Amino acid sequence: MGEVGGLVFGLTVTLNIGQNRKCGKNRHILPMKTPTHSSRRPGYTLIEILVVVSIISLLAAMTNSAIQTVLIRTRAAKVATDLKDLVVGISMFTMERSRVPVPPGFQSEEPFPLHEGSPVLAVLLGENRYGLNASETVYISPKPGSNGAGGLVGNTGSYGYMDPWGQPYYLVVDASYNERVPNPDKKNSHEAISSRAADELFGRSAAMSSGPDKRLFTKDDIVSWR
Ligand SMILES: [Ca+2]
After folding, report:
1. pTM for this prediction
2. Domain around 157
3. Is residue 29, in this structure, part of any structural domain at all?
4. Alpha-helix residue ranges (DSSP H) falling in the chain
5. Separation of 212 CA from ligand 1 center, angstroms?
6. Cα angle vertex 30, ends 28, 36, to 5°?
7. Burial class of residue 181 in the structure, from the number of CB atoms within 10 Å of its CB (0-12 exposed, 13-18 middle, 19+ buried)
8. Ligand 1 centre and the CA of 192: distance in Å?
9. Is residue 104 within 8 Å of 132, Cβ to Cβ?
10. Cα(187)–Cα(100) distance, rounded to whole angstroms?
11. Which of 139, 140, 187, 199 is the most exposed place for a label (fewest CB within 10 A)?
12. Alpha-carbon distance 129 to 106, whole Å?
């Protein structure tokens, strides 16, 4: 009985050890635990992604529009200052010299551009064209042109004076010496502007920019008299 009991005990221990080894081996070959639904990170549906993309696009468009509006206003303010300086410069020239700074024989009271080589611009900048500015007095001092800001373009002796949209400023000068010039707004294509425009403007000159649309006599023109 003692030998039988020892044998049974020995077999039991051996079987237990074998089962434990088997279990330990199986731990390495069991397949990985499949993630359950509750442990998975939440995803996004196509509709949610499209909504987010749409909102971002809308915000980008609104921001771009606001930037463009601010840019136009900033440029318009700079243009208004340039036009005022031109009119004041011509007034100063006329008071000092009892004539307007146009070449002899110039009689037009239509707007003309201050493109490169403009003699009127050269005289205002201090050049003695046609003997009009023997003292070489400087009546306007615009900055050299830069991309998107306008200013003086060209070389010494053949400058042009451009607005921020790359078009030359325009001038109307009192060539008839009656201290008024025809109102260019009468030609404006915008009814609300042309219909209420006076026939004439008082003063020795008027100056204008064709504005962002680069076309003269349209609603977005920037002028020295409005
Ligand atoms: Ca225009």
Report:
1. 0.74
2. 71-223
3. no
4. 2-29, 46-97, 119-124, 191-194
5. 6
6. 130
7. buried
8. 14
9. no
10. 24
11. 199
12. 14
> Residues of the chain with pLDDT > 90: what percent?
71
Per-residue pLDDT tens over the stretch 93-110: 999 999 999 999 999 999
**Euclidean distance between CA atoms 197 and 223, whole angstroms:** 13
100: in domain: yes
The rounded distance, in Å, linking the Cα atoms of 84 and 219 is: 19
88 domain-assigned: yes
Bigger pLDDT: 99 or 156?
99
- Report how far ligand 1's centroid is from the alpha carbon of 220 (Å): 5
Distance CA(69)–CA(6), nearest Å, equals: 100
219 CA from centroid of ligand 1 (Å):
6
Cα-based angle 73, 91, 221 (whole degrees, multiple of 5): 30
| 177 inside domain | yes
Is the CB of residue 214 less than 8 Å from the CB of residue 166?
yes
Between the CA of 186 and the centroid of ligand 1 the distance, in Å, is 14
193 Cα: distance to centroid of ligand 1 (angstroms) = 12
The total number of structural domains in the chain stands at 1
